[in-house]
Amino acid sequence: MVKDPRLPDPLSWQTFTTGLWKENPVFVMLLGLCPTLAVTNSAINALSMGLATTFVLVCSGVLVSLLRKVIPKQVRIASYIIIIATFVTMADYAIQAISLDIYKALGAFIQLIVVNCIILGRAEAYASKNPVSNAFINALGMGVGFTFALLCLGMVREVLGMGSLFGVHLFGPAFQPWAVFVLPPGGFFVLAFWLWLFAVARKRTARAQPATKEVADAA
């Protein structure tokens, strides 16, 4: 039976896990690659950007869902951008107050969360069509998936490029860092590796599902 697109999605575990695996913003949908490559030269920068984006995703998704029946269709995109920009400003001031070093390291990419297609895409495609509970869980899953992707890149680049993780040195003085990994080319190399690894894992999972279903049906 075909689902009516006008009806909200049922709230389930998949509402959260979609952003982690099936529709991971970076590794599957290839969204937000600009901040992904720019700020992942260290794990702490990656985590900070991921948390800031998750905050904006969740808050804007909830507010858009609350106002979905009030906002006129003709100005919905402009309204979403205003909502998103409000929470980005809050995140910007919060990071500046918590750590000026992290704020300087992230630079303009904090403000550029406003135009991140992950945020606006979830507001338009999901939050505006579903109740608050669904919008909250889905946005949280997308934010966690985005943060996970940033950390995957940030940890590898920091360990190989600086010999440390979250600022803690892992190797002795004899270790020679591979400086290329903290430079832009290193970001592309590590991203390509994770894209390949994620694609292989998803293919193996897809192949295993029919076999599991056949065993269950036979039982």
Can you characterise this structure?
The chain is mainly α. It has one domain (15-166, 179-218). It is 66% helix and 2% strand. It contains eight helices and two strands. It has helices spanning 13-22, 33-38, 43-66, 76-98, 100-106, 117-125, 132-162, 184-218, and strands at residues 164-165, 168-169. Strands 1-2 form a two-stranded antiparallel sheet. Helix 1 packs parallel to helix 7 (132-162), helix 4 packs across helix 5 and helix 4 (76-98) crosses helix 6 (117-125). The two termini are 26 Å apart. The model has no long low-confidence stretch (mean pLDDT 90).
End-to-end Cα distance, whole Å, is: 26 Å
The structural class is mainly alpha
Q: Helix count?
A: 8
Main sheet record? 2 strands, antiparallel
Percent of residues in helical segments? Answer: 55-70%
Q: What is the percentage of strand-forming residues? A: under 5%
Count of folded domains = 1
Spatially, the strands of the biggest sheet line up as: 1-2
The H/E string reads HHHHHHHEEH
Radius of gyration: 19 Å
| Uncertain regions spanning at least 5 consecutive residues | none
User: pLDDT average, as an integer?
Assistant: 90
List how many beta strands DSSP finds. Answer: 2
User: Tell me, what's the shape?
Assistant: globular
